[in-house]
Design brief:
8-stranded mixed sheet, Alkaline Phosphatase, subunit A, about 400 residues, alpha/beta, 2 domains, about 30% helix, 6-stranded mixed sheet, Alpha-Beta Plaits
Length: about 400
């Protein structure tokens, strides 16, 4: 196969397909995001099935089809199950140490220094559901102006504030302060702005979330592709996750529908390189909120869009679909889950082959680079190009 001109790599954020062998260490034995949502009456994914989703290892509950392209089940090897570590591994970085988490809240010295730097008090400082924390502390925040700071099972420092109390740009600046402060032993994966609106009893988070991530510790496949003179176009929170490293153009979005619209607009544009897309609603709106039907419906909406997108691919385009972790919407927790993820590869010259279970999400980035004629290697994994072309 001649090298591809463009690779469209789409991450369905949190679309896990079954718990990994080490899930007991993460409290996730039994988790299976795909199995959970497949029981919903909203679940309708003919295009993903045509790509071979039902043929993956461990997926014995969906129809098996003659796949249109190459398929594999990917096992994460990094010590984590969050967005940052998942995307880093997709791009070629193996994280041997987990990022710090704070099940009892952040240390007093961290909170006191943050409060001093921003000139506001702090409420909560505990792990919390994002919707529950604004329901409980929203009134006190609106009355006092104190910031709602909370975390989760992930390595995150989240700041919630009402948009009429703290303007968005001010909230983003507070996040930059926290990002600068949270270094060394407290270098969390992400500082996240969580703005909300509404009145007492009916507060609602808005789509103006922003992530302020930790810098990747080494070069990724994105760096290799952009340094080869090709474009690396991020859609959704990709630019934030990688702090712009290796990204030549960033297109922030406010949800799946906008993300799909922007991706289709890029498909109609002439460029050479990688279009790296994150569709966040699966995780943010449905996985964490334990909404099985909502998750299934969002996947069905993506599948409906996918059929038209695939029909418009050029002969030198390749489509890759994967995920960064799981977030089972029907388990006993609102947290991410330690799961395998799918890899579906489609395009002219891609063989319909089942590669079984692969070790390391790293092979996604290595393969994307190789498809574009760019060599990139990681300590784990190899390019799948010789096996799929």
């Amino acid at each position: 196969m001649k090298k591809a001109k463009r690779v469209f790599l789409i991450v369905l954020d949190s679309f896990g397909i079954g718990y990994e062998p080490d899930a007991d260490a993460f409290g996730d034995v039994g988790a299976n995001t795909l199995l959970r949502i497949s029981a919903s009456e909203k679940f309708n994914i003919p295009n993903l099935l045509s790509l071979g989703l039902g043929s993956l290892d461990g997926v014995n509950f969906l129809p098996r089809t003659d796949a249109l392209g190459a398929v594999a089940r990917m096992r994460e090897v990094s010590l984590g199950k969050d967005t940052t570590i998942g995307h880093w591994e997709i791009s070629g970085i193996v994280s041997k140490r987990p990022l710090p988490t704070y099940p009892k809240g952040f240390p007093k010295e961290v909170i006191d220094e943050f409060s001093r730097r921003v000139g506001r008090g702090v409420l909560c400082n505990l792990p919390y559901s994002g919707t529950e924390v604004i329901a409980k502390y929203g009134d006190r925040h609106v009355k006092s102006g104190d910031l709602i700071v909370y975390t989760s099972a992930d390595s995150v420092f989240q700041i919630a504030a009402h948009e009429e109390v703290v303007p968005l740009e001010t909230l983003y600046e507070y996040c930059r302060v926290a990002r600068e402060l949270l270094a060394g032993e407290h270098a969390v994966g992400r500082v996240i702005a969580r703005p909300f609106v509404g009145e007492s009893g009916s507060y609602k988070r808005t789509a103006n979330r922003r992530d302020f991530s930790l810098l990747p510790p080494k070069k990724t496949a994105l760096n290799a592709i952009s340094e080869a003179g090709l474009e690396v176009i991020g859609v959704g929170k990709i630019g934030d996750i990688f702090v712009g490293q290796g990204i030549t153009e960033s297109n922030p979005t406010h949800g799946n529908l906008e993300g799909m619209k922007v991706t289709e607009e890029l498909l109609a544009r002439d460029f050479s390189g990688l279009c790296f897309v994150n569709l966040v609603d699966f995780d943010m709106l449905y996985g964490h909120r334990q909404d099985i039907d909502g998750y299934a419906n969002a996947l069905s909406e993506f599948d409906s869009w996918l059929g038209g997108f695939m029909s418009k691919l050029s002969e030198d385009d390749v489509l890759m679909i994967t995920a960064d972790h799981g977030c089972d919407p029907g388990d006993t927790s609102t947290d991410h889950t330690r799961e395998y993820v799918p890899l579906l590869i489609y395009g002219n010259g891609i063989k319909p082959v089942n590669l079984g279970t692969r070790i390391g999400f790293t092979e996604v980035g290595i393969t994307a680079a190789d498809l574009l004629g760019v060599k990139y290697s990681s300590e784990v994994g190899e390019s799948l190009v010789p096996k799929i072309t």
